[in-house]
Amino acid sequence: MDSNNASYNAGQAQGQTQEKASNMMDKASNAAQSAKESMQEAGQQMQAKAQGAVDSAKDSTNKN
């Protein structure tokens, strides 16, 4: 009986470890996706600001 119990407990521990590892991988993946989206948004904002600066420069040039 002790051997079966120990084997069962080892299986339970392995399953819990795999579940925790899976959860950690999911969290890491979510963090990476969030960082990617933040960088894309920052890039779009920078592009919009640069385009605004270009448009402003063109307007200034055309006024003269």
UniProtKB/TrEMBL annotation:
InterPro entries: LEA1/2/D7/KIN2 (IPR039624). Residues 1-64 are annotated as: Disordered. Residues 40-53 have a biased composition (Low complexity). Residues 1-21 have a biased composition (Polar residues). It comes from the Eukaryota. This is Pollen coat-like protein. It comes from Medicago truncatula (Barrel medic).
